[in-house]
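re: ur question from yesterday

yeah so i grabbed the chain u mentioned. its 239 aa long if i counted rite. heres the sequnce exactly as i have it in my notes:
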Amino acid sequence: MLAELEDLQAINQRLEGETAHARIKWAFETLGEQLVMSTSFGVQSAALLHLANSVAPGIPVIFCDTGYLFPETYRFAAELSERLKLNLKVYNPQRTAAWQEAIHGERWGKDLKSLEDYNFENKVEPMNRALTEHNALGWMSGLRRQQSSTRQHLRPVERQNKMFKIHPIIDWSDRDIYMYLTQNNLPYHPLWDEGYVSVGDVHSTSKLGEGMTAEETRFNGMKRECGLHEVSNRVDFQI
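ran it thru and got these structure tokens back, copy pasting raw so excuse formatting
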């Protein structure tokens, strides 16, 4: 079955017109135990968590906890994990938040290089470790083209270094998310009602203000991506 992964163009021609359910089914049948998914327990995370776990029950769900998340995020994670019976795998950075701040200060508020160093230590390295420990070949995430300019070019399946990235809901609109959540009686993140359209670390997330784009609510507008979904020389998942 893994031979199917050699021709990404053919895979994407097939999956572009398929449903999210069919894309997850294809990924699970193709990759089996080498398929994992990630979550940030963000604003709309309940949709893909519910859908993926219904198609591939027990799929490992990797959650990188920076130690700087909103209290509401931790409670939301606990609620969804229990309700959906998620096979949750929590990964933390190798140094605590207090240790990092003592040595480096508040890297997220300095400059782009410092922010990227912070993101690498707290998000990319833990995810790298998680994928390695799970012997993963495929990583499923909830990226959508509508979310930002950095995601508009993405296809249902991408190759990121040694990893195959699967995006089941890549073509879903905000309305599609709303309809799925409503039909399945699933919640948005609690901070959605307070004006947050994207939720990450406390220090790098702001409400959507007048004249702002969703991208500008993260990392003080310095960048949109945290590093997990960027192809770079620093991100080389060891499989």
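noticed a couple things. The first helix runs from residue 8 to 15. also Helices lie at 8-15, 20-31, 45-55, 71-84, 97-104, 112-133, 174-183.
anyway ttyl
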